[in-house]
Amino acid sequence: MAPYCVLVSRLQHALSKGVRRYHVAPILCQRAKVAMSQFEPSEYIQYEKLEKNINIVRKRLDHPLTLSEKIVYGHLDDPVKQDIERGKTYLRLRPDRVAMQDATAQMAMLQFISSGLPKVAVPSTIHCDHLIEAQLGGEKDLQRAKDINQEVYNFLATAGAKYGVGFWKPGSGIIHQIILENYSYPGVMLIGTDSHTPNGGGLGGVCIGVGGADAVDVMAGIPWELKCPKVIGVKLTGKLSGWSSPKDVILKVAGILTVKGGTGAIIEYHGPGVDSISCTGMATICNMGAEIGATTSIFPYNHRMKTYLTKTGRAEIANLADEFQEYLKPDPGCTYDQLIEIDLNELKPLINGPFTPDLAHTVDEIGTVAQKKGWPVDIRVGLIGSCTNSSYEDMGRSAAVAKQALAHGVKCKSQFTITPGSEQIRATIERDGYAKILRDVGGVVLANACGPCIGQWDRKDTKKGEKNTIVTSYNRNFTGRNDANPETHAFVTSPEIVTALSLAGTLNFNPETGFLTGADGKKFKLEAPDADELPKLEFDPGQDTYQYPPKDGSSQHVDVSSTSQRLQLLEPFDKWDGKDLEDLLILIKVKGKCTTDHISAAGPWLKFRGHLDNISNNLLIGAVNVENDKSNSVRNALTQEFGPVPDTARYYKKHGVQWVVVGDENYGEGSSREHAALEPRHLGGRAIIVKSFARIHETNLKKQGLLPLTFADPADYDKIHPVDKLSIVGLKDFVPGKPLKCIIKHPNGSQETIILNHTFNETQIEWFKAGSALNRMKELQQH
C-alpha cells in the first residue's frame, strides 16, 4: 500500500501497545480527493485505480516494471484479461483526459458532432494557438488573428460549450505549455491532437499525440487502442553545466536514434542525472521526442516536479504524488528494450540540421561543417520560444546572454524574435524584466502562439527560393517548415545558443570560446548563462483567457454555414464493397522523405483545417515525384498530361478511378495532423504502400478507412513504376497477421506479385470494412 495508510496502520498498532487506547477513524485511510485541475473541481485524480491495476499486472507478469509500463498498464480497460506483450499486442486503454489545439480541434469536433453523442465522457480542452500568424508583433498579430478567424473561434467556443469542452481563447498560449501549467501531473494518461503532446512527460505523465479520430474515441467513452509500446531507457549521469542545456539531451538522443529510431517505443529517462534538470527542462526533452518517432517520453516523479507543481498552484497534487511515488517511478531491476547512456558532464552544446532534426553537430564545429557543405553561414533570423523552449527558465537564460551583450553596447546582428509559451509566461517575464532585455537587444516579442514554428510567419526579409540560414529553439526543421521557402536552412538548438548566435550573426561563433566586439571596440567573451528555474515571486497569470463549459450545454447552438469556406460538416465515407482492390492507379510514387508537412502543408493552409474539401487542395503538394524529381507534378494516367497532385486526384475521383500512393521510409513522420489521412480518403485514395510508417500517421490512415501497407521486402519499392497498375488481393480473407498480395501490372502486359504486410487488428479491420472508425462507431451505437 502507499505510505499514508501504512503510516495509519502503524499508528494504530503503536497506540494499541500503550496504556491508553485512541480511536483512529477508518476514514483516515481514505485519501482526500484531489482535483485534476482547478478548472474541473469535480474530476479527481485516481491514483488508487492506478495502484490497483499496476498490482494486478505486476502479479501477472511477475517482473519489475518500467515507469512507462506502470502508467500505461495502470490505465488498462481490463488489466486482468488484457494480453500484454511489448511491441506486439494492442492495448485497450482508458486515458484520463483529452487536449486539442485549434487547427486539429476543428476536424475532431466535427467528427464528434457526427457521432451524435451529447457530451464528452472525459475532461477535454481546446487551445487556440495555431491560427495566429507572426507578422508585426504580439498584440497586433493577435487582434488580426481574432478578426480573420472569428468564424472558426466561434465554432470551437460554441462546440466546446455544447459538448462540455473547456475553451482556451486565442492569446492564452501554446497548448503544451498550458497543459504543463494546468493539466499534466505524475501518472496521468493524456492524449492530445498534436504530435508534441509528450511535452507533459516532463511532469511524469504518459502524454501521447494522436489524430482527431482517436480523440473522438476517448471523448466518446470508448477504450482507446495503442500497440503495446516498447521501452527505450536513457540513463542520465553527471550534471548539466555551462552552456549545455536540456535541449542538448534530446538533440543528442535524436542524433543517436534518428527520426525513426523511437517508433513504437516510449523513451524513459532515468538515472542520477535526472535531478540536475528542471521540470520544464524535462518537458523540453520529452517534447522533442516526437522528432525521433517515439510514442511518448517520460521522466520519473522527483522533487523538481514537486517544486513546479507547487509553484503553479498544485501543491495538493504534489502531496498526493508523494504518497504514491512508488507507482510513479520505475521498479529497481526493470529491463528496457534498448538502453542509451549519456554523461551530462561531457555533453556539449549541440545544433541540429538543416532540413532534419536528427543531423547533430556540436556548436563548435557547425561553422566549419556549414562552409564545407555550402550552407549559408550568415544567420538571417534567430527565433526563440515555441512549445519546446518557452519556459520561464528558457527566457531567463536567453535574457542572461542578452544582458551581457547590452552591457557592452552590443545588439543582435540577426533579426531576433521571442515567442512566450503562455499568457502566464508572457506576463511574468514582462513583470520581471526579461522581456525588456530581449527587446532592448533587438528582439520582437510575438504573440503567445505557435507562430513561425509551424509556418505561421509572414516573413518579409527573403524571397522564396533564396538560400538563407535561420537558427531556432524549435523542434522541427523540415524543408519549408517555418517559412515555406525550400532554401531556408533551419537549425534547432537551445534558446541561449540561438541568442548568442544571433548576437554574432553567424554560425562561425562558439560562445564557449569565441569573442564578440563591444561598442568600444574591445573584445569580450560571453559567460555561460545562469537563470532561475522558476520566478522568485508567484507567477503572474496575466489575462483570464479560459471559458468554462456550462453544466448543461444542450441548448447551445453550433453554427456551420453551408456556404462557409472555413468549415464543412462531414459526410460519411463509403463502406468497403467486399471485393479486392483491382487496377488501382498510382497517384504518385514518392521519392525520399515525406512528412505530414509534405502530405498536408500547414502555414497558409491552416485556415482550411475545418473544411475537408478545401484543404484537400494541398494534398501531397510537397512530396517529390520519383518520375521527374519535381514537387506537385504528377502524370495523369488517363490523359498522360502532368499536373498538380490534388488536381490529378480529383480527376481520378470524378471518373470513378481509385488510386494508391507509393512511398519510402518513415512515411508520415512529423505532425499528428489527420488531414494527411482524411485528404487522400476524400479524393478517392484506397491504400498507401510504403517501406515503413510513422506511428501516428499509420493509425490515422486506418481510422479513415484506408489501407496502410508495407513492403515485406523493402526492395520491392523499386519494382513499382508510376505508370503501373496495382491490385491488392486477399481482402476477402483479411485477418490480423496475414499478409496481402499486390499484383503489379506493367504497361507491356507483364505482371509480378509482391507481398504486403499490415498491422491491422480485428477492431481496425472493422474500421476498414465500415469505411472509417467513425462509421463503425455509429454502427455499434445503432446495434
Entry keywords:
783 residues, alpha/beta, six-stranded mixed β-sheet, disordered N terminus
Task: Please provide a written account of the structure.
InterPro entries: Acnase/IPM_dHydase_lsu_aba_1/3, Acoase/IPM_deHydtase_lsu_aba, Aconitase/3IPM_dehydase_swvl, Aconitase/IPM_isomerase, Aconitase_4Fe-4S_BS, Aconitase_4Fe-4S_dom, Aconitase_dom2, Aconitase_mito-like. Residues 69-505 form the Aconitase/3-isopropylmalate dehydratase large subunit alpha/beta/alpha domain. The chain is of the alpha/beta class and 783 residues long. 30% of the residues lie in helices and 18% in strands. It is built from 24 helices and 32 strands. A seven-stranded mixed barrel has the order 22-27-28-29-32-31-30. Strands 6-5-2-3-4-21 form a six-stranded mixed sheet, sandwiched between helices. A five-stranded parallel sheet has the order 16-15-14-17-18. Helix 14 packs parallel to helix 17 (495-504). Mean pLDDT is 94; it is low at 1-30.
